[in-house]
Design goal:
Elements lengths: L6 E5 L15 E5 L3 E4 L5 H9 L3 E4 L6 H7 L5 E4 L7 H5 L6 E4 L9 H6 L3 E3 L6 H16 L2 H9 L17 E5 L3 H12 L3 E5 L11 E2 L3 H7 L2 E4 L13 H6 L4 E5 L8 H10 L2 E6 L23 E3 L8 H21 L20 E8 L4 H11 L4 E9 L2 E8 L5 H8 L4 E6 L1
Helix pairs in contact: 1-11, 5-7
């Protein structure tokens, strides 16, 4: 893989008011002639960050299918997507210039992470930025379902005055069962307790309880206990069909169900049957196994038309506050990787957090994780008479990544030797 286009340096304050890096304002680098393609209505904050670094940014409203991506990525260096765009191995093979993919959302299962790692393409996401927005949606849905507000508002729109307390309850004193106690699940736990709810949770990972929340020993125990079950699991393949007829049957009679995690983890045919039977008193669903690709496309689901069922178009994280923060956060990670070699919070490459480089020269070397590579790298620097002033190393699975800061640039012959190594995935200089 060849090097980058021309590098320029400048003192720069980001549009967000944040300096790139920490401490005193560093000397920043940006590249000339680099391109970024951002899909699915990514917030303008991302555009501002990337354009401030010299990127030419193309912003598109919708997602792209595989064939469309293959056509569009020929000279694109950075790709930004959300949950509706799938990046396959075929797409990656057709994108020789692609350096990094930013998932402007929580999940990354829409990207072939193994294939991306094999090609040295970094993948970054926003694991925390929309947490509060998702939590507030779930809390609103819990209250709306408990008060049967979907039915009430529909009857008012139909011209029917139905002032009745039948089937309407407070959430105070009710038990919320959270399945998946990660970033969203823990914050939901805290807010629900503030409303006076009791909280139980189940997670396969060993996570500490927040507040007065209580861990259950099994999913079955949670389902038998909870008045509301809210799913917050990830989209790994093993979670497909995780929640089906057996789990719905195990829930308390007249309990409520919420899924704001992934569409493919729930059997919605079973959910429909249990809502129609009256066993499930209400449900709220924000995610679906197959979702429309573009704004305004037709949406179909077997859950349409059911009483006390809230359907929303995957908007859990779709608030202005969350989208602005996600835009800034992921764009910063993409820029930090492309312009300084930082892989901090990468989901598929070895993590190396690089310090600012106001002076000197930097070499990033992504390589196969085998013995002797680092020794040879350092020998090349020594043979070139180049003084190493800092070095940062990390490994992950089959890959190793080392950032070396030196007082002088490596000679072209030394760089050529490293790039020619059978263990080299790529070598980049700054």
């Amino acid at each position: 893989m060849t090097g980058f286009p021309q590098i320029r340096r400048a003192h720069c304050l980001l549009p967000s008011g944040r300096w790139w890096g920490s401490g005193a304002p560093p000397v920043l680098q940006y590249r000339v002639g680099m391109k970024a393609l951002l899909l699915e209505n990514i917030h303008p904050s991302a555009v501002q960050v990337l354009e401030s670094r010299g990127y030419e940014v193309e912003l598109r409203a919708g997602s792209l299918r595989e064939a469309e991506l293959v056509e569009s990525l020929g000279d694109v260096d950075l790709l930004g997507i959300r949950s509706n765009t799938t990046v396959t191995k075929r797409v990656l093979e057709a994108a020789p210039a692609l350096q990094a993919i930013g998932c402007f959302c929580i999940g990354t299962n829409q990207v072939d992470l193994v294939a991306a790692a094999e090609r040295g393409v970094g993948v970054f996401n926003a694991p925390y930025s929309n947490t509060r927005s998702v939590v507030e949606l779930v809390i609103g849905e819990i209250i709306a379902l408990a008060r049967r507000l979907p039915e009430k508002t529909q009857r008012m729109h139909d011209g029917v005055w139905d002032k009745s307390a039948r089937g309407s309850h407070e959430v105070r004193g009710r038990t919320l069962g959270i399945v998946g106690y990660g970033n969203i699940g823990t914050q939901l736990s805290n807010v629900a307790e503030a409303l006076g709810m009791r909280v139980v949770f189940y997670d396969t990972a060993d996570r500490p309880a927040h507040g007065n929340a209580r861990r259950t020993s099994s999913l079955a125990e949670l389902l038998a206990t909870a008045d509301v079950v809210s799913l917050h699991v990830d989209g790994r393949p093993g979670n497909a069909g995780f929640f089906g007829d057996e789990e719905f049957a195990a829930m308390k009679p007249r309990a409520m169900f919420i899924n704001a995690s992934r569409g493919m983890v729930v059997d919605y045919d079973s959910l429909r049957n249990h809502v129609l039977s009256g066993h499930i008193a209400g449900a709220a669903v924000d995610v679906f196994p197959v979702e429309p690709k573009a704004q305004g496309d037709e949406f179909d689901s077997i859950l349409r038309g059911l009483d006390n069922v809230i359907l929303t178009p995957h908007v859990g994280g779709s608030t202005q506050e969350a989208q602005e923060e996600i835009g800034w956060f992921v764009a910063e990670k993409l820029a930090g990787f492309a312009l300084a070699g930082s892989t901090a919070l990468s989901v598929n490459l070895p993590e190396v957090l690089t310090p600012p480089l106001p002076d000197g020269h930097r070499v990033g070397f992504l390589h196969h994780n085998v013995p002797g590579v680092l020794a040879r790298l350092n020998a090349v620097f020594a043979e070139a008479g180049d003084n190493v002033i800092g070095q940062h190393l990390s490994t992950r699975d089959q890959l190793g990544y080392v950032i070396t800061d030196a007082s002088e640039p490596l000679p072209a012959e030394a760089i050529g030797e490293l790039r020619a190594s059978e263990h080299c995935v790529w070598l980049r200089t700054w």
